[in-house]
Amino acid sequence: MPVYKTIRELSTGIAAGDVSPVDLTETFLSRLKEHGPVLNAVVTVTKERALKQAKELESEARAGKIRSPLHGIPWGGKDLLATAGGIPTSWGAYPLRDQQFDYDATVVSKLDESGAVLCAKLAMIELAGGMGYRQPNASFTGPCATPWSLKHWSGGSSSGSGSSVSAGLVPFAIGSETWGSILSPSNNCGVSGLRPTYGRVSRYGAMALSWTLDKLGPLCLSADDCGLVLEAISGYDPHDPSTDNEPLSYKPEERDWKIAVPKDILEGKKEAVADNFNESVKVLEKYATIEEIDFPEFPYESVTRTILNGEAAAAFDEFCEQGLASELTAPEDRYGPYARSMTLAKDFLRALRLRKQMCRIAEDFMGGYDAVIAPTSGSTAHPIDEPFPVRRPWAFKDIMGALGNGAGLPSQSVPNGFSKEGLPTGIQFMGRAYDENKVISIAKMYQERTSWHLRHPEMFKP
């Protein structure tokens, strides 16, 4: 069975003629239809489009034309990516459940060109969490479960992307992150997720939550697969002026690395998270020099949170003016956007100025290291039927998330163990801007020395 085979493994089989893109596509379409509703992970199965693509790609493969390592590989996209051909793009929101576009997002077009086969639009938190949700049930498709336990949440807001890869419904998926929305489901679902450098991947055709924080990236079975997908979707796009002109060529390296560990990074983390992280450090010490560092004192969370709130209020201004917020699933999302609209202009401008200082801080203290490591999340998956713990804004502690997203830095998350309850945990490798090759390579070497990414949830094994 091709389920739980990596992109690289499937690609080798397709190139050799041992794997049929049509058979592969039919297998994953069947799994999406069977298991997607169990997990609340799928919005739309794109069967007609997928089979048409697969047949064309199979003919090309038989003729010896292989477009890329993604040729004939099925995938799923977070349902904030525009898709033409009458395929809805709901943004996870009930009032937009029938929304359609007459064009494909740039990421979708690039994956088409690379030979990847779009099989599904995947579930997400409504409006990517832009309304300030406080519970897993904040999507019109229902709360998305991690395949490791249907009683626990898959993470937000790329919930369906993480869950679908973990359950073997697609070999890879595309998610988005503004603050934690790729890394969170990677942690909760036990998959490998990459948040690229801001500007590395075009957001054209993707729902905007925060123009200067949003990033699109892959969720896969391995860090190596993340590199293959990133190469296909990255690059300059005239439709998105934030994209950079430097093309990315994924080239994994093997060498001695220099890694930083923030002091007190395990403070407040759950026991399983701390224990698994410490074991990961022992593995990393075999091929890397690891040094402890101090994050300079700075209001990282406040800066990034203020920018997010201000830009989200502007992004959904028309949506709210039309009264559509009242139709959202989570009750708190029906008033959340109005609270965010109260962000003061002077506070927003001050946050923008402080972000420049934050970027300089990141460049200075990360300059001597190939990566900074930390737990991907402070805990395992949250119970699917409970509200999130109430946090006071001034007590919110996620320096890695605030700095990484505020400064637009890449981070590769990979699974690194399980709790006593059988829920996965993750470790992230964050690098300087445009250092994706480094962080993916370090994570790849970690996975070559561990087997956590080779474990899959029993209830979804074929």
Throw out a few tags for this protein.
eleven-stranded mixed β-sheet; Amidase signature (AS) enzymes; 462 residues; alpha/beta; two-stranded antiparallel sheet; 15% strand
How would you sum up this structure, described in words?
This protein is α/β, with parallel strands linked by helices and 462 residues long. The chain has one domain (7-297, 353-460): Amidase signature (AS) enzymes. It has 14 helices and 13 strands. β12 (411-418) and β13 (424-430) form a beta hairpin. α2 (21-39) runs antiparallel to α3 and α5 (159-166) runs parallel beside α6. It is globular and about 60 Å long.
Number of domains: 1
Our Rg estimate from Cα atoms comes to 20 Å
The topology string of helices and strands comes to HHEHEHEEEHEHEEHEHEHHHHEHEEH
Strand order of the largest sheet: 1-3-2-6-8-7-12-13-11-9-10
Helix content: 25-40%
Number of strands: 13
* Mean pLDDT over the residues: 96
Strand proportion, as a percent range, falls in: 15-25%
Structural class: alpha/beta
What is the end-to-end distance? 8 Å
| Level-1 CATH class name | Alpha Beta
Q: What is the count of helical runs?
A: 14
CATH topology: Amidase signature (AS) enzymes
Shape: globular
